[in-house]
Amino acid sequence: xTPFELAEPRSLAEAVALIDPDDxxxxxxxxxxxxxxxxxxxxxxxxxxxxxxxxxxxxxxxxVGPDGGLRIGAMATLSAVERSTTVRNFAPVIAETLRILxxxxxxxxxxxxxxLAHGDPHMDLPPLLIALGASIATASPxxxxxxxxxxxxxxxxxxxxxxxxxxxxxRIPAQGKWRAAYVKCTTGSADDWPALGVAAAIETxxxxxxxxxxxASAATDKAVRLTGAESVLAGATVAGAAIDAGxxxxxxxxxxxxxxxxxxxxxxxxxxxxLLRVYVGRAVRQALASNGAN
Length: 294
Fold this sequence. Notes:
Elements: E1 5-7, H1 12-18, E2 26-29, H2 33-40, E3 48-51, E4 62-64, E5 70-73, H3 78-83, H4 85-90, H5 92-98, H6 104-107, H7 112-117, H8 125-131, E6 135-140, E7 143-148, H9 149-152, E8 153-155, E9 158-159, E10 166-172, E11 178-186, E12 194-205, E13 208-217, E14 224-225, H10 227-233, E15 238-239, E16 242-243, H11 245-258, H12 269-289
Parallel strand pairs: 1-3, 2-3
Antiparallel strand pairs: 4-5, 5-10, 6-7, 6-10, 8-9, 11-12, 12-13, 13-14, 15-16
């Protein structure tokens, strides 16, 4: 690696001030699990890295807010979120998903904010967080803003964040009657990058599907809502975890038709469309079988 300056600010405000929006060789670094690989491969050669490890401890906090929603500081590690009793009580599906996100060595270092800001379409958290209706708070010299996780990703490894804009907090609303699940298909071990990831969140009223969110990732260049498949399932009758198999097949067909699937080393676009047809149904069934956002 080429030499670079390492800045270690003690506050978020200082960190933001140290990032030059006009110089792409200046980057913030949180866990650094992806950035260091890029540097070792000479894909990225920084002149300055702004470490976020010493900023205020509140940006690593995990707590339920006054509105009943879950708030996770951007500097919380994935392992801290995975092990958090607060997270498990609020939405066990988050902790269960993290168990199959990469390996424990990565999760011990990687942070929530870094995971989202990296914009990698193969990551497991974005589709789940979109299905749960999550948003992020950010900070920049222009001030603070809040945007839905669904609006964060602009394309393959691209986000709408400014160069000097940092994610400060992940916010997940109270789940109420929502039930959720995340399923993925890998060509290797269970914690490998997926060929396809599908998240489903379903709200039922009695025996009818009142609302549904379906999100696909990995097979697409960013995590995307499957609105056509959602429309197929809206108003469907359910009995416990049971739902009409024909409707699920129709939702899978709609998902395969609407998603802009891409080919890569984990499979062709045609193969991934067939996966999508199957995994939409699996995600829906698993969500209905769960107890709350489980």
